[in-house]
Amino acid sequence: MLHIIFLFSLLFTASTNVLAQDFCVGDLKSSPYPSGYACKPETSVTAEDFAYSGLGVPGNTSNIIKAAVTPAFVAQFAGLNGLGLSSARLDMDVGGVIPLHTHPGADEILFVVSGRIKAGFVSSSNAVYIKVLKKGDLMVFPKGLLHFQLNVAKHSSVAIVTFNKPVPGLQILDFALFASSFPTALVEATTFLDEAQIKKLKGVLGGTG
Description:
manganese, Cupin_1
């Protein structure tokens, strides 16, 4: 009986010690592991580690998609380390678009701060879900599914996206096909696009092959 009581006391002590670590602010000077960064000593943690102002600055939308994504991942916001969260700011000029893309590692929630954004995704059964979002609206995009955002306002639009993983991953379909060295003949065979159109798109996006 004493042995059992002793064992339970050890388990309770161990679990209490684990629970006592409320956070693990990332030491961004250390080498990152798949699970994140090493923890800063708690004695050097300040309130600044739990706040981030980097999303208050508009991104540069002077590019081919007329949009910009400003990340607030662990590498920018050390207080997120170990919490399984990440965020970003989305700026979209008139006609701006985030082309069809996927996040293989995370679900996404988009919150419209200003403007009007048409957004949607395609399910694995090829069902399409599209909604025009206005200021204050939310939309969720399940992990791994192709989705997009398009500014349909007559002025710029801004949104905040949040992911349930520290590194959501990203693959943009257009860039994968037309900004890479994916051979034109294979793109033609696997997408049913004609060669001339593929070469035109590769010329625009910088692809080869």
